[in-house]
Automatic annotation (TrEMBL):
It is found in: Cytoplasm. Zn(2+) binds at H128, H132, H138. It comes from the Bacteria. It comes from Sphingomonas colocasiae. Single strand-specific metallo-endoribonuclease involved in late-stage 70S ribosome quality control and in maturation of the 3' terminus of the 16S rRNA. The keyword Zinc applies. HAMAP family: Endoribonucl_YbeY (MF_00009). This is Endoribonuclease YbeY.
Amino acid sequence: MLDVAVQTEPEWDDGADWDMLAEAAVRIAIEHSPHAGWLNRALCVEVTVRLTDDDEVRQLNAQYRGKDKPTNVLSFPMVQPDLLETLANTDDGEAILGDIVLARDVCVREAAEREISVADHATHLIVHGTFHLLGYDHQGEAEAEAMEALETRALASIGLADPYNRD
């Protein structure tokens, strides 16, 4: 079972169904991970997606990453990567994977640069953030390639183009 709580600030009120979009993005990422089986169990997997402004993201980025600037997406995992496997053996209860936070103006600007909708770009960023909650990272070249390949396959399965422009 999947429970995605979406917290949307007013600047994100552009007519998109952010609740549906966020749940679909988190679900598709989990389905394309080794943890897809979680979705067919009584275990309730919880993720919070916060859609906010650049100022809040800048503050979080400064506080938690030492970078005093807004970024497109931040992820805050609640389960250590080495403990994710133990959830595979859990039949009930709750697993709070963590929080994903998106910055509105950064997302709008990046979407315009890529000539895609804000909703499509936000979907990619939520998928990306979910993979971080699942223990993936992109610090080294091999890790980045593996994570990008997962994202690309997940997005392709819902009809979205490769965000890394590999044709």
